[in-house]
Amino acid sequence: MEETSLIKGFVYYLASNKNNAIFIGVTNDLKRRIFEHKSKLI
């Protein structure tokens, strides 16, 4: 029997102290998405 993960994605809330913004989103790779926000890749 093949093992499958029950987690399909993450809902995240990120707050920016710099511009007082709140980012809400969905991703399947939370570590990558936080890196993208911190690196301003999105």
Major sheet size, sense and barrel closure: 2 strands, antiparallel
> In which range does the helix fraction lie?
10-25%
- Tally the helices: what do you get? 1
Q: Which class best fits the helix and strand makeup? A: alpha+beta
* Distance, first to last CA: 39 Å
Describe the protein.
By secondary structure, the chain is of the alpha+beta class. It has one domain (1-42). Helices cover 21% and strands 29% of the residues. It is built from 1 helix and 2 strands, in the order ββα. The chain has one helix at 30-38, and strands spanning 10-15, 22-27. Strands 1-2 form a two-stranded antiparallel ribbon. The longest helix is centred in the last third of the chain and has 9 residues, at 30-38. It is elongated, with a radius of gyration of 13 Å. It starts with 9 loop residues before the first strand and ends with a helix. 0% of the residues are buried. The model has no long low-confidence stretch (mean pLDDT 84).
Provide key terms for this protein:
single chain; 42 residues; alpha+beta; two-stranded antiparallel ribbon
In short:
With 42 residues, the protein is an alpha+beta fold.
Record the SSE blueprint.
Blueprint: E1 10-15, E2 22-27, H1 30-38
Antiparallel strand pairs: 1-2
